[in-house]
Amino acid sequence: MMTLMSSQFQPVLERIAAEIERTPDRGRPADYIPALAACDPRTFGMAVAELDGTVYGVGDWREPFSTQSITKVFTLALDLAREGDELWEHVGREPSGNPFNSLVQLEYENGIPRNPFINAGALVVTDRLHSRTGDAAGELLSFLREESGNPALAFDKEVAASEAAHGDRNAALAHFMAAYGNIDNDIPVLLDQYFRQCSIRASCADLALATTFLARHGIRADGTRLLTLSQAKQINAIMLTCGTYDAAGDFAYRVGLPGKSGVGGGIIAVVPGRCTLCVWSPGLDERGNSVAGVAALDRFTTLTGVSVF
């Protein structure tokens, strides 16, 4: 373990990339989304962003990829900033212990999803943000463009269409929650918003920069406050306990940082008050998390001693 200075981020990243390159098993891309199935599981990129906007990277850190469930963090922040604690009457804050697209708990918990990062919970958050903005996906894209400083960020129409064509389970989740009065918008409208949200393409550099508001305790890149200190703490806490599907306990044990993964192979992570990270490698484990991504974050916290514990 080293005492890490900012100038040492780059050599640490290069060491990690060299170790990952020697890893034989990188998992398999998400084959249930045809547009993602062709991704090379040996692709790897990693970036670290400091609070002043300085970014370090290695590998394919500037290559855009499908953000997928990583966007749930930003949608949550945008809605929580607008409605505050009222949100928690409609979605919980507990780990689910079940796969991210499970319907099992909804019936005996009266249509209230366990947390905002499983699909059911993310649908509720998107629904509520859409009611408040009229275009949840557009609001999200604008926010990501501003925080990353990259106006070229865009939706991937092919990925959105692919998810819509294979979105029966998400439709079932939405209809089930609507039956309990926990969805406000028409289901087709909500699903379109949700699939567009998940289709946004961004690089490790983009996402590391866009996440720094959580490391700055709610302060955006332009110096304005999006979240209160308490709200920023809440989101970081939910990322730690719920951000990597039903592997969140193992992720907290290995990495020791708030994180959020997506089935496109990306993972963001937050070191409050210090920096943010994003790693990308499309090969997933059986729980939907990037094999190389988790390993790289594990090595980062091991080598640097940086964690929330």
How would you characterize the overall build of this protein?
The chain is globular, with a radius of gyration of 18 Å. The longest helix is centred in the middle third of the chain and has 15 residues, at 119-133. With 309 residues, the chain is an alpha+beta fold. It has helices at 9-21, 34-37, 71-83, 104-108, 119-133, 136-148, 157-165, 168-179, 187-199, 204-210, 212-215, 229-242, 248-254, 291-304; strands spanning 45-50, 55-59, 65-66, 201-202, 259-261, 266-271, 275-280. The strands form two sheets. Strands 2-1-7-6-5 form a five-stranded antiparallel β-sheet. Strands 3-4 form a two-stranded antiparallel ribbon. Helix 6 (136-148) crosses helix 10. A hairpin with a 3-residue loop joins strand 6 and strand 7. The chain is 46% helix and 10% strand.
Rg from Cα: 18 Å
How many strand segments?
Answer: 7
The backbone outline, from C-alpha atoms, is: globular
Question: Mean pLDDT across all residues, rounded?
Answer: 94
How many DSSP helices?
A: 14
Give the terminus-to-terminus CA distance.
15 Å
* Amount of beta strand: 5-15%
Low-confidence stretches: none
User: Could you estimate the helical fraction of the residues in percent?
Assistant: 40-55%
The major β-sheet equals: 5 strands, antiparallel
Please list the strands of the largest sheet in the order they lie side by side.
2-1-7-6-5
Assign the structural class, choosing from mainly alpha, mainly beta, alpha/beta, alpha+beta, or little secondary structure: alpha+beta
Give the H and E element order: HHEEEHHHHHHHEHHHHEEEH
